[in-house]
Specification:
With 375 residues, the protein is an alpha+beta fold. It has three domains: 3-120, Methane Monooxygenase Hydroxylase, Chain G, domain 1; 130-227 and 319-368, Alpha-Beta Plaits (2-Layer Sandwich); 241-310, Double Stranded RNA Binding Domain (2-Layer Sandwich). The protein is built from nine helices and eleven strands. It has an eight-stranded mixed beta sheet with strand order 2-3-1-5-4-9-10-11, sandwiched between helices. The protein has a three-stranded antiparallel beta sheet with strand order 6-7-8, with helices on one face. Helix 1 (3-23) packs parallel to helix 4 (91-118), helix 2 packs antiparallel against helix 3 (48-87) and helix 3 (48-87) packs antiparallel against helix 4 (91-118). It is found in: Cytoplasm.
Length: 375
């Protein structure tokens, strides 16, 4: 191996060792053994919610263990790949073998760096699923259209990762796009990962809704919350909520079913309103809407506690700020994060779900003190 390759492999070793120190494969294996014992209990499914929590945790920990173990195996094999390449007597075969090893080294670096970002997600709630709310802002019909573009962008990002997405509610605008949408991303560390997307997103383009085809700036707001679990103890008395039922509607206000199955819950003390029309039954929609309401109440409680600490002098004085990312389609092509300065010149790829670069930059920025801690 050349000195440059040896130095690169040594750097990968240092990075992976840091990851292993945080994730601790031995502790992960011990946790897998514990959860497997619980999952094997014949009485486990007497409590279905607890059983689902146990099996979900088992799946997550197994995935973490497989990932870090696979990285270690690949790194151990990498020097061997170069040694075998050097032993090739045929120059052409040697060149191909070195190229194969180089490709593996580059791929391994990308996977280690990606896993390295996960170790920065150490917040109390980071490992949970994420509730994402998107709302159109200033900009009229262009803003509603932009909100729908963001909804599609996040769903495409989740699909590329194999993550399940449940769209709980979509409020369609009259002409085009959406007024708001609420969905849940089911994936380990979805909240910790997507929380850096919270803030105001800005779109600059030639408006397809303007007869003169003039340039238009529009805005949409993204809110990211952790999914509430039983242990969070967010009590919502029946006297504190008003439940309204109505028929689900699609684009243009068209009714999409013939029964009053959609549910709107208003939390009277705070004025928070959540809706769900995705499920087939009124009961299912009420359960889903209550879950979102509890997530918002939990976030409100945590924010109040953080504000109280800040008044006492604890915590930083940085904030997410209003505008966090610009999507420019005219007069040039660029998407730029205004906090991290990370940018790409292919807006269509980003809007098609290619978000990982922005997410990793945001997580590293936050870990380096770029914003108040979430938790």
């Amino acid at each position: 191996m050349t000195p440059e390759i040896s130095a690169d492999i040594e750097d990968l070793e240092t990075r992976l060792a840091s990851i292993e120190k945080v994730l601790d494969p031995e502790a992960l294996q011990h946790r897998v053994d514990e959860l497997e014992q619980k999952a094997a209990d014949p009485d486990l499914w007497n409590d279905q919610e607890h059983a689902q929590h146990v099996t979900s945790q088992l799946s997550q920990v197994q995935a973490q263990l497989r990932k870090v173990t696979a990285l270690r195996d690949r790194l151990n094999d990498l020097p061997i790949m170069y040694e075998l390449a050097e032993e090739e007597e045929n120059p052409s075969a040697q060149q191909d073998a070195v190229a194969l090893a180089d490709d593996e080294r580059a791929g391994l670096r990308g996977d280690i760096e990606s896993t390295e970002v996960t170790t920065l997600l150490s917040g109390e709630l980071d490992e949970r699923d994420a509730v994402v709310n998107i709302r159109s802002g200033a900009g009229g019909v262009d803003a509603a259209d932009f909100a729908e573009m963001l909804l599609r962008m996040y769903i495409r990002w989740a699909e590329k990762r194999g993550a399940k997405v449940d769209v709980y509610d979509t409020s369609y605008a009259e002409e085009a796009g959406i007024k708001s949408a609420t969905f849940v991303v089911h994936e380990p560390y979805a909240y910790g990962t997507l929380s850096v997307e919270q803030g105001t997103h800005r779109l600059v383009r030639l408006s397809p809704f303007d007869n003169a085809h003039r340039r238009q700036t529009s805005f949409a707001e993204v809110e990211v919350l952790p999914v509430v679990e039983q242990t969070d103890h967010i009590d919502v008395p029946d006297s504190d909520i008003r439940v309204d039922v109505y028929r689900s509607s699609g684009p243009g206000g068209q009714s999409v079913n013939t029964t009053d199955s959609a549910v709107r819950i208003t939390h009277l003390p705070t004025g928070i309103v959540v809706t769900c029309q995705n499920e087939k039954s009124q009961l299912q929609n009420k359960v889903a809407a209550m879950a979102v309401l509890q997530s918002r109440l939990l976030e409100k409680k945590r924010q109040e506690e953080k504000d109280a600490l800040r008044e006492l002098g604890a915590g930083g004085n940085a904030s997410w700020g209003n505008q966090m990312r610009s999507y420019v389609l005219h007069p040039y092509q660029m998407v730029k994060d205004l906090r991290t300065s990370y940018e790409v010149n292919n807006p269509q790829a980003v809007l098609d779900g290619d978000l990982d670069g922005f997410l990793e930059a945001g997580i590293r920025w936050r870990a380096n003190g770029g914003a108040d801690a979430k938790n």
